[in-house]
User: Which sequence fits this backbone?
């Protein structure tokens, strides 16, 4: 009888484990997709505060024609805020989100009005998981 119970327990674990893993993977994807949605909303409205809570302790920021390097989360906030205030966002959209990589990233395009003309830019944002939550590790606008 004990052998039958152990076998039944083992079978139930083997059958449930793949579903638990798939569910966990789906939650992981949903979590970082939510972060990318908030980043997109922040860029569309030029409101860095909509996504700045996701900044990692050190964020790599590379801005076309502006500052580039590794910055504290506070410094990254002010750099991006200054960048977006100097431009009027015409459009912004993430066109692809990588779900397969260990480090999720999104790429897209932006159009700004800047100094009397239009400026097109490509945008790349990557995330890392730290302390159980997704954080922005890198933002490139080029």
Assistant:
């Amino acid at each position: 009888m004990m052998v039958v119970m152990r076998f039944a327990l083992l079978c139930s674990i083997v059958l449930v484990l793949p579903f638990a893993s798939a569910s966990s993977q789906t939650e992981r994807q949903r979590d970082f997709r939510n972060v990318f949605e908030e980043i997109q909303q922040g860029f569309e409205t030029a409101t860095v505060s909509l996504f700045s809570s996701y900044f990692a302790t050190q964020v790599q920021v590379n801005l076309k024609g502006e500052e580039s390097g590794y910055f504290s989360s506070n410094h990254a906030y002010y750099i991006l805020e200054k960048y977006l205030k100097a431009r009027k966002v015409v459009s912004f959209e993430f066109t692809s989100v990588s779900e397969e990589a260990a480090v999720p990233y999104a790429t897209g395009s932006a159009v700004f009005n800047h100094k009397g003309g239009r400026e097109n830019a490509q945008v790349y944002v990557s995330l890392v998981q730290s302390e159980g939550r997704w954080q922005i590790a890198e933002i490139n606008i080029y």
